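FIELD: query
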Amino acid sequence: MKTALLAGLCAGLLLACAAEAQVPLPSAGTSPVELTIELFNTHTRETVKVVYKRGDDYLPEALTKLNHVLIDHRSGEVHDMDPHLFDQLTDLAAAAGVEPSYEIISGYRAPESNMKMAAVPGSGVSKKSLHMQGRAMDVRLKGISVEKLRDLALAAKRGGVGYYQRSRFVHIDTGSFRTWIG
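FIELD: result
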């Protein structure tokens, strides 16, 4: 009985102090949501699976690993990718009801690589591609058709969505919402 009384007094004192100081109390048993993504680069054959975000915080070591797997395989250059791109991909996988496990056809593109690709007639590569800014990826989501991935991305209306039926991938970027067929 004395233990229950003492515990009740301590809890009340803690609540009163927290209210006076306007300090939020920690929630019992809760931890920040962790977001995980898996990327497989179809050119380098490298795979990385990491927790890249905990709560509202991006994890720098994980972002470094993701940037590396998204290397420009033509030039060997690595560039910081927009972490919101990983959020988009994670959200699309959740909407599809599958794990966020992606095949990467193209991640970062160095300006020289992009220029060479854009110079090929009929390539469909933009001279101002967001790939050069680390803000775009060409992807396939494992376990989902590219048509379903395209439809989910179109419904989300978060950035550019390009559908490449012949090459079987979807372009996702963090630019303004726009769509095209390549």
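FIELD: remark
The first strand starts at residue 34 and ends at 41.
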